[in-house]
Amino acid sequence: MNSGMTANAQRRDRWSSAAVFALTVVALLLGWAVKAAAEGRTSVYEADGMRIAYPAGWVRASSDTPVLLQVEKPVSPARTTLSLQRRPVTAETANPLSAVHQALTLERGRGWTAYRVLNVGPSAAVPGREALEVTFAFVETKANPFLSAAPVVMLGQEYLFAVDQAVQVVTLTAAEDNFGGAVKDLKSFLRSSPK
Amino acid sequence: MDRQLCSSCGKPVEATSPQQPGRLLCADCAARSYRDRKGTWWATGAGVALTAIFVVVVALISRSAPPTLDGATLVVVSVVLALVPAAIWIVVFYRQDSREPEPKRMVLAVFILSALLARAVGIPLVEEVFRVGSWLAAGVLYHILGAVLVIGFTEQFLIYAAVRYSVYPTPEFDERVDGIIYGTAAGLGYASLVNVQYVLQSGGLDLTAGVIRVAVTALALASFGGLTGYFLGRCKFDDEPVWWMPAGLTLAATLNGLFVYALGEVSTTGIGLQGGGYNPWPGLILATVVAAVTFAALFYLIRRLAGRAPQAAGA
């Protein structure tokens, strides 16, 4: 092709194109940093000597004992929720993590539609803390009843930790489609949960 | 001794010809490269005005006799409506630019290439890799920085690439104003794909709010594409430094990003008992004003350059 350009102009164009490409890459890297900063923002909940960070922009929902804190992502089609609860156990309970897990399973089996435990096992998700990791599924039927949409399959993941005379349960629930993206919110929530 | 030939028309270049820094041109072609084509500006002005009129007409029709469309019919009608702004510009442009039109094939090729780049790179990068929808509203600073760095740079780089790596090195790109024409075509191509994708994702358009959104996207990307194209035109024909084009892209990307932010601000209203939450009309006014101001500035810059043009042989 006759580009019709002098060698100097072609060389300058090549450098100019390389500079434009490099500039765009730098802009996108900075954009990624902005994204990370925006997504990493947290709000802090403090009460009863407890301090826990949850994603900024999430809304605190009212909660009753044993739930200490429940937050919800406002724009997800079926609510993505993170919660922290504290379940007392007696000193005689042989395996408090397993006992609380069984109790939760029975409660949810009665109250949640199609609740199923998918996997249970020990976890080292939080270094230095022995935990039981549970994944589960259910069908969200209690979302806005005026919403003309089919019920949504929800996934959940939770960690149970033994603390003094109690078990602390950190739970994430999210629609199947949003679950992968919400797991990182669970991880940061876990890291800030009271020891 | 080799005779040097004009890169545009092939005639011998006289030693006395006023030379362009970037290309070997005869006196006639050198003078033409500065030319300010009135038809282009008429077409641009008419394109902006007719796009706004199109929206008002559709809104009036939809208000006075709401059509009952659904399913596939609604999607097909919506896709057609999503392509109307680009069609308006292209038709008006060809009618006005009849004296020496750019090759239809090249304008269409740039339009399609830009649309393909939007589908293959731009939209997946912005929506799936950066997932801007989930964090852009985290705060004003995040919104502005995200809109400029992610949306602005992605869109303007791809519009730049659609022109730079297709028509730019060819002899068809023989005037500074061609940068604006091809940049605008690339912007419209990108906007058309964004609009069609929006229609398909939402299963059709709300005839008023949807058509306004389509027009706003087309007006904005056509303007900022024209701005990027202006810098490309200068880059080819003037002895601009290496940083010229990066600076131009930064300006276009920044304005593009600021527009995205401002559009969100002016279109969002308080929610009350009478409804609310989203009012698209201020966005249309903003886009129309931005397009008019951008093209008026480009018109002024091209006119100023034309005043410096060397005289053509025999002129």
Quick structural gist:
The complex is a heterodimer of chains A (195) and B (315). Chain A is an alpha+beta fold and 195 residues long.
Give the SSE string of chain A.
HEEEEEHEEEEH
The number of helices of chain A is 3
Compute the number of structural domains of chain B. 1
Main sheet record of chain B: 2 strands, antiparallel
Describe the structure.
The complex is a heterodimer of chains A (195) and B (315). Chain A is an alpha+beta fold and 195 residues long. Chain A is built from three helices and nine strands. Chain A has a seven-stranded antiparallel sheet with strand order 3-4-5-9-8-7-6. Chain B is mainly α. Chain B has one domain (47-306). In chain B, 69% of the residues lie in helices and 3% in strands. Chain B has a two-stranded antiparallel ribbon with strand order 1-2. The longest helix of chain B is centred in the C-terminal third of the chain and has 29 residues, at 209-237. The radius of gyration of chain B is 21 Å and the shape is globular. At the A-B interface, helix 1 of A face helix 5 and helix 8 of B.
List keywords for this structure.
heterodimer, A: 195 residues, alpha+beta, Protein Transport Mog1p, Chain A, 9 strands, B: 315 residues, mainly alpha, 9 helices, globular
Give the topology, please.
The complex is a heterodimer of chains A (195) and B (315).
Chain A: H1 7-39, E1 42-47, E2 50-55, E3 59-61, E4 67-73, E5 80-88, H2 96-111, E6 113-123, E7 131-140, E8 152-163, E9 166-175, H3 176-192
Antiparallel strand pairs in A: 1-2, 3-4, 4-5, 5-9, 6-7, 7-8, 8-9
Chain B: H1 27-33, H2 38-64, H3 71-96, H4 104-129, H5 140-164, H6 176-202, H7 209-237, H8 244-267, E1 268-272, E2 275-278, H9 281-306
Antiparallel strand pairs in B: 1-2
